[in-house]
Write a structure and sequence with these properties.
Layout: E1 6-8, H1 18-28, E2 32-36, H2 53-66, E3 69-78, H3 88-97, E4 101-106, H4 111-126, E5 131-135, H5 145-155, E6 161-165, H6 166-171, H7 176-181, E7 190-192, H8 203-212, H9 224-230, E8 237-239, H10 244-248, H11 253-270
Parallel strand pairs: 1-2, 1-8, 2-3, 3-4, 4-5, 5-6, 6-7, 7-8
Helix pairs in contact: 1-2, 1-11, 4-5
């Protein structure tokens, strides 16, 4: 098996401060982490890396001490009133951390405006050496792979990419044929987890599962071998696997991060 970048996503160990997350990633054998610079929801527990210079310095020092890199920063939401300049401080922080990828959500029903805003974000991010990835999620306005690909292509920016997350790929009923048709240059990393059970009809239940009840690779029903074979060879993988049940059972962040990478490596070894 060729070694590849494997990153610990914030959502997997969301209770940890960024410096502690770096330590957990290093002990478990990850090469990178993802940093959540903007909370996904208003009530989410958040460590304000952009506003807190002291926390930023502490995190940078821990990255240097451990040799862990930063793969991506998240989560930039493109909404109707969004201006790309709104994200300048976030992109500056991402560049300071040495990140290369930016996770972007599309929350604007006007697809042309969403496309224009994505293009503008790409132009701003280019100055920081960053690649925005539009992540399709079935409850957003980039609901599936087909729509996200269309928006990114119409935005027409070389650093514009699509983020494939195994959970959203399954729950949006996206197709491997469409993934195989996407230019490899439009995918610089992917998010990996497994998915259990049939696709719910209720979007609120899909959202609940996405934030609380994912499975470690190989523990669910998703065709992860087919997905991985359809992605660019050796693409970096961000392990985003929130497991609220394990958290409530007292399984530590260290244990969960270790389970995630061990099961991912076992899956990769079988490809």
């Amino acid at each position: 098996m060729n070694e590849r970048v494997i990153s610990l996503a914030s959502l997997t160990v969301l209770e940890l401060s960024p410096p502690d997350m770096v330590d957990v990633a290093a002990r478990a054998g990850y090469s990178h982490v993802g940093l959540r610079l903007i909370p996904a929801t208003p009530d989410e527990h958040h460590f304000p890396l952009v506003a807190d210079a002291g926390l930023r310095r502490q995190t940078l020092q821990r990255l240097r001490d451990t040799g862990i890199g930063v793969l991506d920063i998240e989560i930039l939401r493109l909404q109707p009133a969004t201006r790309s300049s709104d994200f300048k401080a976030v992109l500056e922080a991402g560049a300071e951390f040495g990140a290369s990828e930016v996770l972007v959500a599309g929350n604007d029903a006007d697809e042309q405006r969403l496309t224009d805003n994505f293009a503008a974000l790409c132009e701003l991010a280019e100055g920081y050496g960053l690649f925005p990835h539009l992540e399709f999620m079935p409850w957003t306005d980039a609901a599936n792979l087909q729509q996200a690909s269309r928006i990114v292509e119409r935005a027409g920016r070389a650093n514009g990419c699509v983020l494939v997350d195994a959970f959203h790929f399954d729950r949006s009923a996206s197709r491997l044929e469409d993934l195989q048709a996407l230019p490899p240059s439009r995918m610089r990393y992917a998010q990996l987890c497994d998915v259990a059970g049939p696709r719910p009809h209720d979007m609120a239940e899909i959202l609940r599962q996405a934030r609380n009840e994912r499975r470690f690779p190989g523990d669910g029903d998703c065709d992860l071998p087919g997905l991985l074979r359809s992605l660019p060879s050796g693409i970096p993988l961000s392990l985003e696997i929130p497991t609220r049940q394990l958290l409530e059972q007292g399984v530590s962040a260290q244990q969960r991060a270790q389970m995630a990478i061990d099961k991912t490596r076992a899956l990769l070894a079988r490809l």
